[in-house]
Amino acid sequence: MGVEGIGARVLRTEDRRFITGKGKYTDDMTMPGMAYAAFVRSPHAHARIVRIDTGAAARMPGVIGILTGKELAADGIGNLICGWMIHSKDKTPMNMGQYPAIATETARFVGQAVAVVVAETRGEARDAADAVEIEWEELPAIIDPLQAIAEGARQIHENAKSNLIYDWEIGDSAAVEAAFQRAAHVTRIDLVNNRLVPNAMEPRAALGYYDAGSDHYTVWTTSQNPHVARLVMSAFYNVAPEHKLRVIAPDVGGGFGSKIFIYPEEIVCLWASKRTGVPVKWTGDRSEAFQTDAHGRDHVTHAEMAFDGDGTMIGLKVDTIANFGAYMSLFSSAVPTYLYATLLSGQYALPAIHCNVRAVYTNTTPVDAYRGAGRPEATYVLERLVETAARELGMSPAELRRRNFIRSFPHQTPVIMNYDSGDYEASLDAAMKAADYDGFPARKAEAARRGRLRGIGMSCYIEACGIAPSAAVGSLGSGVGLWESAEVRVNPVGTIEVLTGSHSHGQSHETTFAQVVAERFGIPLANVSVLHGDTDKVQFGMGTYGSRSGAVGLSAIVKALDKVEAKAKRIAAHLLEAAEGDIEIRDGEVRVAGTDRKLAWHEVCLAAYTGHNLPPGLEPGLKEGAFYDPTNFTFPAGCYICEVEIDPATGRTAIVQFVAADDFGRVINPMVVEGQVHGGIAQGVGQALLEACVYDRDTGQLVTASYNDYAMPRADDLPSFKVSTTETICPGNPLGMKGCGEAGAIGSPPAVINAITDAIGTNEIDMPATPEKVWRAIRASGLAEAAE
Amino acid sequence: MYQTTYHRPTSLAEAARLFSEAGDAAYVSGGHTLIPAMKLRLSAAANLIDLRHVGELKGISVTADEVAIGAGMTHAEVAGAAEVKGAIPALAGLAGSIGDAQVRHLGTIGGSVANNDPAADYPSAVLALAGTVETDRRAIAADDYFVGLYETALEEGEIVTRVRFRVPEAAGYAKFRNPASRYPMAGVFVARHGDGSVRVAVTGAGNSGVFRAAEMERALAADFSADALKGIALDPADMMGDIHGSAEYRAHLVTVMARRAVQNLGQALAFV
After folding, report:
1. What average pLDDT is seen over chain A?
2. Residues 223 to 252 of B: which have CB under 8 A from any A CB?
């Protein structure tokens, strides 16, 4: 490893512009003649549009145009799609309701776009949007997924009987039943995985521009995957032909999954630009973000685990209801199925698993992937279950886990996944040591003397990252392939530009990808730049989500680097009159091994471009591209241990220690990885203690529509994390990487809740474990008197 | 936000004149309630009159009996004022516990008291410290000043100029914060005065805003100790309830916070 290469704690090159406020986000883009869009949104959770009167609004100052779903449909703009086909267990395809970018007949959630006003200023657009008159016929709203599928519930979409999108299963139910028949012990649990609002720091935004002169379209948008946006907007939404559409995702201020999807607003801005003849910009405000960014999680689950007489897991059955909201978002169908149920084996050698998932419509904001996407839900089910089982069996939670760990690889689970590598005992041991697990009873006793209830909880998570290979995901219903592409352009002076399909919106690709390139040729990091986020620059890419950029995106870069290196060696061998096999590239020099014959790296690069003296038949230039399609998912795993102290008088939980021991395979930049883990844990703690997305059950209004009511984790809610990594190399990709972007959010919620339930002596408390919930649980358990 | 015209008077007289001439007008000080409401288009004064540059609203004066704070003083200025810390440390502590650093450097005591948010911190101190709210027209005793939710005895256009606090023998403030907004869900200011009286004022919990807890005052007047509050439970029917805390929970928290205030005199403590 060099000081700037793989494994080095290099400061982020992105930081200069982000920390000094010099980032360039979509809202920073301006164009001559640019106008502003304001959306008229449904104030009702469920209502029929009787009449839209735009007359008065159209006469207001600055108004350029007012468009409704009628015009959208007339121009042939397609409905929004869900890109992953799931079939119910009766073989019928999922019931996808029509999702127009602007509602035409019925609005099905508060905030759904009903019309758009384009005006010269933001304020004028907003004023005119307020003046659009809509006559509504209110319909009953359904918020609760259990009510949605109850007998006699009002149907939200014509083609989804009982509001059921699909009723899907995985695993061998007969084998599971047999296991439960012979079980010595069965642990049962009922859980809610709470709905979350993603809360990216930068709200979504779009600037659409149609150039009538060249019949060309450009859209700047807050996207994690601009190429997918281009593909979907052209192939499915019919907004612009793919070869005449440029999608640019400049600096993007966080996504957490919520910016994977192609939303109505960017479609409408681009379409409205053609309709009105001016560039059209929309920047969402925070209220719109709360109401319209795809939410996350929202599962109701019953799970049972069967054990034999000595604590060995012999079967697992899980029944989940997943709330999809009012429409199927782009990848919503995959989240509670192939990203969830396939992870239910966890780190354990479970011989039989069955999971049933019912996906349900309600009159709420659409739900889709959010940091972890399915894997946090699976981990939560499994790790709450295991901790509860340990208590029921009178075993230590660590011992029960240890007894059931998978120890040989590859390991085929009963739910599709084939784990390639791992050492779960190593992360458990590392975490227990870092947490001083054995010292806990003394700490608990000391806390008790101060009137505090101290608890400890652990969580051993596994996740599947990379989402691949393409053929496999295709066979499971994915509408797209999940490879990645890269291009390495070496300039005549030896500096290098890397073009990647892996968009960076907080992940630090501009630093870590450059580290890998710098290391390969021994050149300074400053001589490498990483370009992403523009479909006119990068040929194609599948984008950033599912912790795939290292394992998949960087692997494509490595493949391209291999080609560049081979060609550079060929040129150098020719110039140095040596055999290609004797050439080595190191420390910025290209030398004949074992001799003092050498060229500087830039001399070889220049030779490639002058073309004065190249091997016969070799093309000039030094630029290579590659597509990389992995052979398998990757399987990061780890152990998290949380320690809490609860004030029994108020029910307030303080996290007093949090330990994370993760196996991410090879790590490029430990500092960046630690940052990912810190952020992930903060989000997981947010889910466990604070964040609740609440709808009014009668009206369907979003109660938690601002930070006044939606509780985000703050720095003082969190301790200083103790993070470390153990390493088993991933055999599936050239660098041996597994992915680290979501682990923190996946592993932490059950660790926190297990610690709380340990402290207060109950197995039942739902997230978020607010002070009042904890206080009520303590009162019910009789521990309350301890305090005051 | 709707279009608004911003005015920056430098004297009380000018401010009052602008208000009466402007018609649809609102005073703004730190703006932490008004500006967010305007951004959400829930509030739309055509004229905004900024009181932050009125010199008459600045300053702190302390005597043996009284602390008087200019309405334009920010929470950070009050929290950092040595004379306030010396005379009523719990009051300085309360100011230092409001919101976050940004809020404390913009928000003012006058704005807080004039707005009378049912979850604001200051009103509890004004009530418990037998305060007086001075305006450009008169002086109003705290017991007459706070009327209800966001409602005070102030008349149209009346400007709070100063808030006077009686220096107590001992005082303490304890609050439990709403985890989302970080406003108190139950904030209790307890003060024992030289005449032997005890005043206990509660913010964040009552369904008609800040109030005095009479039963607690009687108990503490007889025995100024946390134990005296044991068994005193407020009626949940008088409490606010929302997604962050039911009325029953808030009623319970008030007693817990009152006890902690008495246990930590001279301080303002936030139990998150």
Report:
1. 96
2. 226, 243-246, 249, 252
